[in-house]
Write a structure and sequence with these properties.
- The complex is a heterodimer of chains A (305) and B (609).
- By secondary structure, chain A is mainly α.
- Chain A has one domain: MetI-like (MetI-like fold, Orthogonal Bundle).
- Chain A contains 13 helices and no strands.
- In chain A, helix 7 packs across helix 9.
- The model of chain A has no long low-confidence stretch (mean pLDDT 89).
- Chain B starts with a helix and ends in an 11-residue tail after the last strand.
- Chain B has 17 helices and 25 strands.
- Classes of the chains: A mainly alpha (305), B alpha+beta (609).
- At the A-B interface, helix 2, helix 4, helix 5, helix 6 and helix 12 of A face helix 1, helix 8 and helix 14 of B.
């Protein structure tokens, strides 16, 4: 087990360098520059800017500098926001995205697993169809439809909740968390249901029932552990994406998270910021996948590394 | 069994759908149709203004950021020599109380008032000299440095150029084109040697080459309260120009102490009515009043809050819910205008902006001036304006009715018959001499624009007009903004490309100077020495009417050559709660925040202030 984790951790380094190198190359291919605007700049001003940011150096010098920055974990200064370091932007926005993502994930997990389990236990009942219909709706309705609909109802019609903005832990969080978690809730409910259905028909559950365990104990102690495996493998990438910023929800609700910065960094050709955020996201995905693999061993005693 | 199950699932779906539909219907019908105001109207308890300012500020260092949303914030923090009049946008006294020009508009003198920085130090003419030299320094790499290029030697300093001096006599080599200024040569030796190899510059060879120093720039502190600009050519609109953020003084003491961190809360030193209290990027920027401000008694607001929000619908939601009291310009989405325009919140005023397209005059059918005229005449701009709802049609480049006394020349009227006649003349005719659309190489043209809902609908309108009036089908091509800019400036598009322009200062010259090739770039490939000569003659005039006449003559020349396809003048389009007073819809949508206040008495909300 220890060796498995170590091996996986070592791979993260080279993987990261490949990802940032590809990203860096793609930025080069995109036309335009961070300083281009509606009126073309006089050549001298363009030259001043290129010199200031080292863009006049050969490509391998710029590439080397980017790699060195990545290895040191200090991505330098943003081009769009002069005087602001990429690291400080990450430090300020990550807590926002992470709060949102973790809350949305927890909500999705609680509601999804509960609904999925009930649906599996009462297969083909009204409760099953209702929850699966709701899940279908949740999967099919994109968050840029759900978010504005919730805002229209709760913020602009009944004036119960604020329509947007970030105020830390407050009622401002309710609508974005709901919007964000809907899809995940739906997926988790469906995954739980199918996982549970399969497990409930398996031999070891029949054995547990034959031993005379109560239905509650059969479900909670034996069935859920196996039935949740699909949810676990779904959770790794889901959590990584949730905490590293969700562009649409952060934009609709004007939240100061990583996703908002990421989309703008791309539109602005803000190279250091793009590299910084991509590096962070890749690490998050790699680490969460590792956690998931380790968690498998806990959920399914048959898995060994 | 299966059948029954299907029914149940369907019933569950129906129930859900019905609930949702009911809720939506409730939401849609609940708009209070009888209120003259949009959404919730509840003023704050105190004097607190909440404003949506647009994207997150790039920087609050005046010469560093080039964006207009940032300039609005800087107006609260830094006073200029002059300030934009809150009603007209014309210059009014700020840190300078009076100013005067010499006979040919080439030297301007500004007289400063007694004022203090927020740290108690006096604001002097030296602060302005320092700030303008800093703004021009190549190391700062300001994107708006070109705003000051008319100051003597400013461009040479910003370009890192050198002057040439005779090795024996020590006399400077002067510019043969403008003998009032020294000749500036490239600072880089290889480039200079190449430039000097041209026969026209033979007289500047074998000299001593001296780098241009900051002290060479034509800004001087005559005394602590007198600032003088020496210009390389006549520029009558300097007082309008110096309202721009590039010319606002920065506090030398803070800049030298904190470097590029000097605008952070706790470090910043300001000259304006407000100072930064809290700055959380992408979240909020809170300003409080500056007690050291020279006009502090006039300032009514205690707190001024800027929210960076980018999504238009989100802004409208925040506004409707009463969480913010005003939004920045062009924030009401076109799909909302019809509904929102009837409320008193909607701010509609003529704007210093012209929306147009440019022709690529270097390739394809649009090389022919007759084709350009024909394409222009075949667009019904009145109809376009009705379709766009918020704009006024125009056939000119300089916005109409914006500059009293400026005799705006008219471009081509809408005239499909003449358009066809011109195309016949240009050779697109059949054997019998009739207009033949199939001869027109429409496939060698396209309508290029940067991706946005609004640009697309304008482009589609043009496409439809040409099809309807000329029988030609030109395809659309949309591009991501920065890709588009590059394509346009390199003249890599075919046919026409979108080219809106918002004026930098309240003068027709800001629109005409786009077509002077040096400095500006218009993306058409067109240039004309006669046009440049007319502009230069105009700027030497002291009589404003004569100057306007010459500028209009230049504009007529531009419209005759038709590198541009003017469509309409924009109008302001934003929302403001009735209790926010002292914030008028002006042509530049720049608001001097010291005039803004919250009126708590509803009886006074509708009074004109």
């Amino acid at each position: 087990m220890g060796r498995f984790i170590l091996r996986r951790l070592i791979v993260i380094g080279p993987m990261l360098l490949v990802v940032v190198s590809l990203t860096w190359g793609l930025i080069r291919l995109a036309p335009g520059n961070f300083y281009s605007g509606e009126k073309k700049l006089p050549a001298a001003i363009e030259k001043n800017i290129r010199e200031k940011y080292g863009l006049d150096k050969p490509w391998y010098v710029q590439y080397g500098r980017m790699l060195a920055n990545t290895v040191r974990g200090d991505f330098g200064e943003s081009l769009k926001y002069p005087g602001t370091s990429v690291n400080s932007i990450l430090a300020a926005t990550l807590p926002v995205s992470a709060t949102l993502g973790v809350l949305a994930y927890l909500l999705a997990l609680v509601v999804g697993v509960t609904a999925g389990t009930i649906a599996a236990l009462r297969q083909n009942s009204t409760a099953d169809y209702a929850s699966m219909a709701a899940a279908m709706l949740g999967i099919s309705m994109p968050n840029f439809v759900l978010g504005p609909t919730l805002v229209l109802l709760f913020a602009l019609t009944w004036y119960w909740l604020p329509p947007a903005r970030w105020e830390g832990f407050s009622t401002h969080l309710i609508l974005p968390v709901l919007t964000l978690s809907a899809v995940y809730m739906a997926y988790i409910a469906r995954l739980t249901r199918s996982g549970m259905l399969e497990v409930l028909r398996s031999n070891y559950i029949r054995t547990a029932r034959a031993k005379g365990l109560s239905e509650r104990e059969v479900v909670v102690r034996h069935a859920l552990r196996g039935g949740l495996l699909p949810v676990v493998s779904f959770s790794g990438p889901a959590l990584a994406f949730l905490i590293s910023g969700t562009v649409v929800v952060e934009r609709i609700f004007a939240l100061p998270g990583l996703g908002n910065y990421f989309i703008n960094a791309n539109l602005n050709r803000d190279e250091p910021l793009i590299i910084g955020i991509v590096a962070f996201m890749s690490i998050a995905v790699l680490v969460f996948n590792l956690i998931v693999d380790v968690a498998y061993a806990f959920f399914d005693p048959r898995i060994r590394y | 069994m299966r059948h029954k199950a299907g029914h149940r699932a369907l019933a569950a779906c129906r129930a859900l759908a019905a609930t949702l539909a009911l809720a939506m219907a409730a939401a849609c019908t609940s708009g209070s149709a009888d209120s003259p105001y949009f959404g919730k109207v509840s003023p704050p308890a105190g004097q607190e203004m909440r404003y949506i300012s647009g994207s997150e500020p790039e920087s609050l260092d005046p010469p560093v950021s080039s964006s207009q949303p940032d300039a609005r914030i800087m107006m609260a923090l830094f006073d200029g020599l002059t300030e934009y009049d809150p009603k007209t946008g014309q210059p009014i006294p700020a840190l300078a109380t009076t100013w005067e020009a010499n006979d040919d508009n080439s030297v301007f003198t500004f007289h400063l008032r007694d004022a203090k920085w927020s740290d108690g130090a006096p604001i002097t003419a030296d602060d302005f000299v320092y700030s303008i030299r800093r703004g021009l320094s190549p190391a700062l790499a300001s994107r708006t440095a070109y705003m000051a290029y008319d100051i003597s030697n400013a461009q040479a300093y910003n370009e890192g150029a050198v002057f040439a001096r005779d090795r024996v006599s020590g006399a400077w080599v002067m510019d043969p084109v403008n003998t009032a200024v020294r000749l500036a040569l490239p600072g880089d030796e290889a480039t200079r040697t190449k430039a000097l190899s041209a026969p026209a510059l033979a007289f500047a060879r074998d000299k001593e080459y001296v780098p241009v120093r900051p002290e060479d720039v034509g800004v001087d502190a005559v005394d602590a309260h007198t600032l003088r600009f020496r210009l390389r050519q006549p520029v009558p609109f300097v007082p309008k120009l110096v309202s721009h953020q590039f010319f606002r003084a920065v506090p030398r003491q803070a800049v030298e102490r904190y470097g590029d961190q000097w605008t952070r809360p706790g470090k910043i030193v300001v000259s304006g009515a407000f100072i930064i209290d809290v700055w959380r990027p992408y979240d909020v920027l809170i300003l409080k009043r500056n007690p050291s401000y020279y006009d502090a008694g006039m300032v009514r607001l205690d707190t001024l809050i800027f929210y960076p929000v980018e999504d238009l619908t989100t802004m409208m939601n925040l506004y409707k819910a009463g969480e913010v009291y005003a939004t920045f310009n062009h924030t009401v989405p076109s799909s909302w205008v019809g509904q929102v325009k009837r409320y008193k919140d909607y701010m509609d005023a003529p704007e210093l902006a012209t929306e147009s397209f440019v022709f690529n005059t270097t390739k394809g059918p649009t090389m022919d001036v007759r084709v350009r005229h024909a394409l222009n005449m075949a667009i019904d701009k009145e109809a376009l304006a009705r379709f766009r709802r918020t704009v006024k049609p125009t056939t000119s480049s300089v916005p109409l009715n914006m500059f009293p006394g400026y005799p705006s020349p008219q471009g081509d009227p809408f005239d499909p018959a003449r358009a066809k006649a011109l195309l016949v003349e240009a050779g697109f005719r059949d054997a019998s001499g009739q207009y033949d659309p199939s001869r027109f190489p429409a496939t060698e043209m396209e309508i290029a624009y940067n991706t946005s809902e609004s640009n697309r609908s304008t482009a589609e309108f043009i496409q439809a007009q040409w099809k309807q009036n000329l029988g030609i089908t030109v395809s659309l091509r949309n591009m991501e903004f920065r890709t588009f800019l590059q394509t346009r400036s390199r003249l890599e598009y075919r046919g026409i490309a979108r080219s809106g322009w918002i004026g930098d200062y309240m003068d027709p010259f800001t629109f005409l100077s786009l077509y002077v090739v040096e400095g500006g770039d218009n993306g058409s490939g067109w240039s004309d020495e006669r046009f440049v000569a007319l502009l230069n003659r105009a700027n030497r005039q002291h009589d404003p009417n004569e100057r306007y006449r010459l500028l209009a003559e230049a504009e007529k020349l531009l419209l005759d050559a038709q590198p541009t396809l003017p469509l309409y003048n924009n109008a302001t389009n934003y929302l403001k709660k009735p209790f926010v007073k002292g914030m008028w819809a002006n042509p530049v949508t720049m608001h001097a925040w010291k005039f803004v206040y919250i009126e708590h008495d509803p009886a006074k909300w509708d009074q004109v202030d």
